[in-house]
Structure formats: C-alpha cells, structure tokens
Design brief:
By secondary structure, the protein is mostly helical. The chain is built from four helices and no strands. It has helices spanning 2-52, 55-78, 84-104, 108-129. Helix 1 runs antiparallel to helix 2 (55-78), helix 2 runs antiparallel to helix 3 and helix 3 (84-104) runs antiparallel to helix 4.
Amino acid sequence: MKRVFSRLLAVAVVSAGVLFVGNAAADSILEFDVWMQKIDRHSQSVLLALKRQDAASAIADARELEHLYGFMERFYEARGEHDDPLLLSWDGRQRAASAASLVQRGDFAAAYESALGIARDCRACHDRFKPIRPLG
C-alpha cells in the first residue's frame, strides 16, 4: 500500500511539473503577444509625436520601445534563437534608444527616420518570426 501511494505521489508530482512548464511557456507567448501589441502602438505614437515635435511624448514612447524590445530580445535568447529574430530585437532596441537620444539633441528628422525603421522592421519580420502560428 505504501509503495502504491509513493508511485501515485511521484506521478502527481511529475504531472504537476509538466502542467507548470506548459503554463510557463504559454504565459511567455502571451506576454510576447502583449509586447508586440505595445510595440505596435508605441511605434505609431512615437512617429506622431515626432511629427508634432512633441519631445516629451516622443522620448517617452522611444524609451518604452527600448524597454519592450529588451523583453523581446530576452524572449528570443531564451528560445535559443540567435539569428534574425534576435538581431531584429537588438536592432529595434538600438533604434529606439537612438530616437530618444536624437530628440534630446533636437534632431527630430533623424529621430523620425530611426523610429520609421522600427515600424518598417515590424512589418518586415512579423509574420516570419511571430511564435504563434495560425492553424492550417
């Protein structure tokens, strides 16, 4: 009886571990999708702020983009991807940092070009590297 209980307990522990790992992976993919949506919103709003020459808003959006791209970069590193998606994440983070820095120097035109590069990269790689694939 004690042996059967020990085996049942072992099976329960392993099953719980599998469920936990499955949920952790799902959570990170859901978080990734949230980051992507936020990146999309901030990449649009930073462009609008730069057109208006609203330095405070542009810097805030650029800094948030830098932060979000850092999350995405770590996401791809954790998945073991060291090619294009990781490079594009790094590049997005660098462009966002550059845009914020350029606005602080008053160079809205160069900051706009840097932010526009983020928007173009989003469109160029989104379908290819998004970790959630449509069925069928």
